[in-house]
Description:
Layout: E1 2-4, E2 14-15, H1 22-34, E3 38-39, E4 49-50, E5 60-61, E6 64-68, H2 70-75, E7 80-83, E8 94-97, H3 122-129, H4 136-155, H5 158-178, H6 182-210, H7 214-217, H8 222-236, E9 241-242, E10 248-249, H9 252-267, H10 290-296, H11 302-310, H12 325-330, H13 332-354
Helix pairs in contact: 3-4, 5-6, 6-8
Amino acid sequence: MVGDFNEVLCGDDKFRGRQINTNRAFDFKACLDSCSFVDLGFAGPKFTWSNRRQITDLILERIDRCFANPLWRILYPEAAVTHLPRTFSDHHPDLIELSRPNVNNLNKPFQFQTMWLMHPNFPRLVKDAWFENNPLPSAVSNFTERAKKWKHEVFGNLFARKRKVLARLSGAQKALANRPNEFLVGLEKQLLDEYSSILLQEEEYWALKSRLNAATYGDRNTSYFHISTVIRRPRNKIRCIKDGRGEWIANEEGVKKHILAGFEALYTTGLDMAPISSSISQFSCCYFTEEDQDWIGRVVTEEDVRNGLWTLKPFKAPGPDGLDAGSFQCFWSKVGRSVCSVVILPLIVELSLNT
Length: 355
């Protein structure tokens, strides 16, 4: 649903003029919720209407919007809305693109998938990658390479397997209806068990992508997790960015260069060193007691490393290697020694140098 709704939803949707009518805004929001509408967002100027006055009397509002229900969002996950330049009208035209070509040909980075844990062969893959006395960087690299190969050759595409099982199940049930026999009954049961397993894996897949806690929302909420992922995905994409002069950069290469330049300016300095003007003892602050100092300076144990790892949420924010805390927690008996060696050994060396 697209159009001029002649109503704002919040104070940020308006610049100057009379205060928004909160009752009308709440009614508008209630109507959208009752229809299960989701705002498609936008790129371009924030406001879509102007009274075209001088700056002292200027009023700007966002009253042109694009809404869709979750089913439409699933059908067109890449749909995007752009506010085009306003010319002779007092409204900005809205451009809806149902899909955009993916010009980024970079390979997707590796990421650990929780649905792999449900495959009976996956523990053996971990065991083979993390053989005894293998250093952690080497073990991680070995595991990711093996996991990529295993994903394509063994696990396969989850959705293709689902379609294949459904097609086989349909064929088996048709044959069973025409000529019932023991083999077809057993085949139907086998395919139903396989389909049930795929559904569990699919639920884990969408739960991980939606960044929501599956335990909180119950079992078999695959459609809910799927919708959450589809709605969140466009918000995580940078389609355009505004530079320091207030101009929008829509070209992908231009966006990359602007972000890179921003980080280079942020982390670049002309100073080679910063002199210390006073000793640390002159600072007014609290100090650790001798007991606390002894506890902090003690040798770190494997149990300390394990307890620290278990304080992290298992499947949130994977590292640059694509592994999250949960991937180490699930197979701690196999990976624990290599993880502890990376954490404990440098601390022991530093402690020996300071004593």
